[in-house]
Write a structure and sequence with these properties.
Layout: E1 6-13, E2 16-23, H1 30-35, E3 45-48, H2 55-65, H3 70-73, E4 76-79, H4 81-88, H5 97-105, H6 118-128, H7 132-164, H8 170-182, H9 186-194, H10 202-217, H11 221-231, H12 239-253, H13 257-277, H14 281-304
Parallel strand pairs: 3-4
Antiparallel strand pairs: 1-2
Helix pairs in contact: 4-8, 5-7, 8-9, 8-10, 9-10, 10-11, 11-12, 12-13, 12-14, 13-14
Length: about 300
């Protein structure tokens, strides 16, 4: 039963950015309101901020109820909140548009109407016909559109700057690496994971380990081996994973069962030492994993004798 009464659209025309807003003066005019939403709107992609969770389902329902909306359903949809979260969730207190405006754009809204008051403002307008308070909602909507454009530009700048950088903070390296990994662009993912600054931070070690797995996937075992050896020089959050990969490497690739056994023994020694300092379920998990691998390696070695 929720009905959108104001839909704003922004698009480029020549060298200008045009904002066009559609207002529903009364419920009885909803069909015409919806049918004219996308008149003359260029392009085939809609860009939104959190539109996949809110705007898209709401408009889909209203279009279906009014049996219209072919233009809407024919368009692809890009919701930039997911990219914002991917790149900045480790840096920002939250990923709301208001926070993105302040942190990325340096923009603070003045005299803005709170979002939770907007439905009541429209109900008041329907009752008394006074458009004064609705005007503030229109301004709020304009800011939403312009801020979405600004955030999109800043996200693009962030990627371009990162591509040119030789080193990235461990958070940026992780965010960009995971971004390209999700897109299955393994080469660029490994490049960004490998740019992580060498600091004592859990994300730095996670970056290096992800880079090692990508190198392994791409067949560059020399690079993967160097990463695993780096991660096993001292204890860190990816220490056991790297040891496990080293054991796999020697067991299956070099067929050096003695070396593979030595890696498993080292892992068990470290697990025992760490378990004396602190109790954690993860120690039990790794104990079982390395115990199974060590038993299999010894069975293989026995067959070769």
């Amino acid at each position: 039963g929720t009905v959108p009464f104001l839909v704003g659209l922004g698009y480029f025309e020549d060298d200008s950015f045009i904002v066009r807003q559609h207002f529903l003066p009364d419920y009885c005019e909803e069909l015409g309101f919806l049918e004219h939403l996308f008149d003359d709107l260029p392009g085939k992609v809609l860009v939104s901020f959190n539109g996949r969770a809110f705007d898209l389902p709401l408009l889909t329902n209203r279009f279906l109820i009014q049996r219209t909306g072919s233009e809407f359903f024919a368009r692809d949809h890009l919701d930039i909140i997911f990219t914002l979260r991917r790149f900045f969730r480790l840096k920002l207190p939250d990923c709301t548009l208001k926070t993105a405006e302040s942190s990325l754009l340096g923009f603070e809204r003045l005299n803005d109407v709170p979002s939770e008051q907007i439905p009541q403002i429209y109900f008041d307008y329907l009752r008394d016909g006074n458009p004064d308070s609705v005007y503030q909602v229109v301004i709020h909507n304009q800011w939403d559109i312009l801020s979405t454009l600004g955030v999109l530009v800043e996200l693009n700048k962030f990627v371009e700057k990162a591509e040119r950088a030789d080193k990235l903070s461990e958070q940026d390296s992780w965010a960009l690496g995971k971004f390209y990994l999700k897109r299955r662009d393994f080469s660029r993912a490994m490049t960004n994971f490998s740019k992580s600054e060498a600091v004592d931070n859990s994300y730095h070690f996670r970056n290096i380990f992800e880079a090692s797995l990508l190198a392994k996937r791409m067949g560059d075992f020399e690079a993967a081996l160097s990463y695993w050896q780096m991660l096993t020089e001292a204890y860190n959050p990816s220490f056991y994973q790297a040891l496990e990969e080293l054991a796999k490497y020697h067991e299956h690739r070099t067929r050096d069962l003695k070396q593979a056994e030595a890696v498993c023994k080292r892992a068990n020694e470290v697990i025992y030492q760490m378990s004396q300092i602190a109790t954690a379920d993860s120690y039990q998990v790794w104990t079982e994993r390395f115990a199974k691998r060590l038993a299999r390696i010894r069975r293989k070695a026995a067959k070769l004798q």
